[in-house]
Amino acid sequence: MTTRGPSTANRRFYTPPATPPEDLDRPEKSALVAIKGLRPLDPVNPPRSTRPPDLALPKRGEENVALYYFRVGRAYGSFYWVGIKAVWFNFQATRLLKERIKKDAEGEEKKTGEEWLRLVKRSEFQLLERNSHDIGKLPLFGVLVALLGEWLPLLVPFMPGVVPGTCCFPKQLEGMRKKAEERRRRSFRQGISEPSKEQISEISDATVAADWPMTGKDYAASKLKGLRDDQLYHLSCALDLHNRMWDRVQLPPPSWLLRRGLSKRLAYLTKDDKLLTRDGGAPRLSSEEMIIACEQRGLDVLGKREEVLRNDLTWWLARQHEDRGKGNAIFTMLFRRLAMREWVQLNVKANS
User: What is an example of a GO molecular function annotated in this UniProt entry (predicted)?
Assistant: First the structure.
């Protein structure tokens, strides 16, 4: 008779097999390993599995062209496969993390809205946010990888919206950043006036007295109510939010669509600013995470040294900290930052 496990007599002495060492070192499993407590979790930088894996393309040798491109296709296939597995393992990690937050909060997050932020590190918050963005794209992208295989990199630039963040290869990321920065420069050249104090006046609500109230989407939405359509469009361009299809047809998106996207992004940025300020600030960020943090805030990153980016982000966080996340500073920076004397002086000093 075949047994399926340890006998009843020996069950109390049974020890589950340990996690294989090779699983601990797999980059696509880094978030799951950290959340399980098998490896320490950095308080500021999210796990490696939330970013694209390394792409090792073969060098052109003496082999024929067909063999070379076959090897290139295999490299991209391996890259996409690791990226897809990373999304799935990150999803498992977020489920464990949410269970822990729910247990620690004991219902507080339902009472206070954003109180759960005190229960997570900045790295854990980023894991939750990035996987929420990636997991919905996984089914369609997985089908595309299975159908197109090594031909997929040729089509990805035309459909960036379907690609999870863990599957963006370096040239694709650079192209997306170039387009975002060009869109931002065009919008700033329009000279859209920043909102007046009346347009973003303080809200007569208890949330104003709260610390960092812009972490709530409702508060952010109320701050956007008084803005004109051209001001909303500029904010969306500065943060690279709306689909570029609207730029191709030369029409601005409807204001309700802009407000919805902006309220979500402004609340997200304020949460991240609060956690980043609390957990160590810009000096604690790795080079890769520094670039991501800057571009999410509408700060140009291409061609800039790391020192400049770190100073830019430190300046941004200081203004947010002074404003206590009420939204006034973030509007000022997104409308006037390219013309502000302090901003110019900061970059001149860093580049000299």
Answer: ribosome binding
